[in-house]
Amino acid sequence: MTVRIATWNINSVTARLPKLLEWLESAAPDVLCLQELKCSTEAFPHEAVKELGYDTAAHGTGRWNGVAILSRIGLEDVVRGLPEQPGYLADDALLADVEPRAVAATCGPVRVWSVYVPNGREVDHAHYRYKLDWLESLRRAVVEDAAGARPFAVLGDFNIAPTDEDVYDVAAFAGLTHVTPPERASLGNLREAGLQDVVPRPLKYDHPYTYWDYRQLAFPKNRGMRIDLTYGNKAFADAVTDSYVDREARKGKGTSDHAPVVVDLDL
Predict the structure, then answer these.
(1) Cβ distance 123 to 115 under 8 Å?
(2) Which alpha helices (DSSP H) does 78-125 contain, by range?
(3) Is 205 a catalytic residue?
(4) Pairwise CA distance, residues 73 & 161, whole Å
């Protein structure tokens, strides 16, 4: 059985719906993990993707976060949110806000999590501590599935560049988030739990970045980062036959600032 699984930070599913539908038809993934929906669960365009054959497990509140899994090969055992997920306590908040940043489902022979890891903002910001705590909760949540015989993967926007080669100029990120040793150590903890990066270098070109800022012509100049990742267990990784970053989906007007990452499996 051939299965195509993808992940894409869509940066508002409402604003990008035409792009999303066009891409679903052209790339034809069996499973698509989405992040940064910026819409509530109820407002997600369930019917529009249903017309293309996809069932949806969405998890959103209508604000800046939100995640979803689209599948045309089954959608079972849905879990919304990480067990023991920390909340973010903003400076002006009385209670910690547990944000919709993770959703899991079994899609045919594969189980996946779609995750939108907190940005971290600045190293000395409370959001950075929240990011590290959230990643530890993710590690605890996936340990059992990672060790199992069933193909399993965590896909999404990790807001971490795994190595210095995964940013266009590491000097430009000195003292900033996304490249710090504690963040990268959190990815190391996922590897120790039995997961591995299944879209490693080299790919079909030298710099397979997945994110480019809208500003300062970052995309035409290829000033990007590889922060949209797929971490799979051994059963998943052994089944991978191809992987690529779909840069074409980043081109033109009205696009997300991220490109989809696609992984093909032979199961």
Answers:
(1) no
(2) none
(3) no
(4) 31
pLDDT exceeding 90 applies to what percent of the chain? 90
User: Which has the closest alpha carbon to 7: 240, 231, 254?
Assistant: 231
Q: Which residue positions form the known binding site for Mg(2+)?
A: 9, 36, 157, 159, 257-258
Question: For 215-265, what is each residue's pLDDT tens digit?
Answer: 999 999 999 999 999 999 999 999 999 999 999 999 999 999 999 999 999
CATH of span 2-266: 3.60.10.10
* Cα distance between residue 94 and residue 89, in whole Å: 7
Helix axes 126-147, 181-192, angle to 10 degrees: 10
Neighbours of 91 (CB within 10 A): 6
Query: Are 69 and 94 contacting, i.e. CB atoms less than 8 angstroms apart?
Result: no
Q: Are 129 and 89 in contact (CB under 8 A)?
A: no
93 token code pair: 């908040």
Distance (Å, whole) CA 29 – CA 23: 9
Mean pLDDT of 121-125: 94
Instruction: Spell out the domain ranges in the chain.
Output: 2-266
Q: Is 178 designated active site?
A: no
Q: How far is 177 from 107, CA to CA, in rounded Å?
A: 33
Residues near 253 by beta carbon (within 8 Å), at least 6 away in sequence: none
Instruction: Tell me which of 157, 166, 178, 211 is the catalytic residue.
Output: 157
| Paired sense of beta strands 228-232 and 152-157, if any | antiparallel
Given 54, 88, 116, 211, the catalytic residue? 116
**205 in Cβ contact with 195 (< 8 Å):** no
Phi, psi torsion values for 82, nearest 5 degrees? -80, 140
Residues in the chain, overall count: 267
Q: Is 213 a catalytic residue?
A: no
